[in-house]
Amino acid sequence: MARSKWKLSFFSISIWRRIIMLKKKKYLRREQLFYDRSSTIPECFSFYAIKIHKGRRFRKLRISRYNVGFKLGEFSYPRKPYHFPLKKSLKRKK
Q1: Are 48 and 66 spatial neighbours (Cβ–Cβ below 8 Å)?
Q2: Domain total for the chain?
Q3: Residues near 48 by beta carbon (within 8 Å), at least 6 away in sequence
Q4: What CATH number is given to the structural domain containing 41?
Q5: Under 8 Å between Cβ of 57 and 41
Q6: Is 58 inside a domain boundary?
Q7: d(CA 47, CA 41)
């Protein structure tokens, strides 16, 4: 279900601080660390490299114009993908 149009995008306080720092042309590290995955990616972060916290490690993400508007958590999966093992009878037939 899509978000209502009258609601604005959610940005955490840490992202608002970084947006203000970009507007004031202050120094920002090239790889910024993000812990909150529920925030929307703003347009001013285009072509930046950021690191998103996965629970134990950080995942590096290069933001392009196609990533803008999505949540940060959509690009860092906290769980390792699980693959069901094949049955032994299927392995022998091949």
Answers
A1: no
A2: 1
A3: 30, 32, 62, 63
A4: 3.30.860.10
A5: no
A6: yes
A7: 12
